[in-house]
Amino acid sequence: MKELSEKQRVFFNSNQTKDLSFRIKQLQRLKTLLLSNQNRLNEAIYADFGKSPFETFTNEFGLVFLDIDEACSKLKQWAKRKRVRTNWINFPAKSYIIPEPLGVSLVIGAWNYPYQLSLAPSVAAIAAGNTVILKPSELPSNTSKLLAELINNSFDPGFFHVVEGGIDQTTALLAQRFDKIFFTGSTNVGRIVYQAAAKHLTPVTLELGGKSPAIFTENAKLSIGIKRLIWAKFLNAGQTCIAPDYVLLPLSMKDEFLQLAKKEIEQASYSIENGNYVRIINDKNVERLKSLIDQNKVYFGGEIMEEKRIIHPILMQDVTFDDAVMQEEIFGPILPIITYESLDEIISEIKKREKPLSCYIFTGDSAVKNKLLSELSFGGGAVNEAIMHISNSRLPFGGVGQSGVGSYHGEAGFRTFSHYKSILEKATWFETKLKYSPYSEKKLQWIRRFMGIS
Question: The Aldehyde dehydrogenase domain covers which part of the protein (predicted)?
Answer without folding.
Answer: 19-423
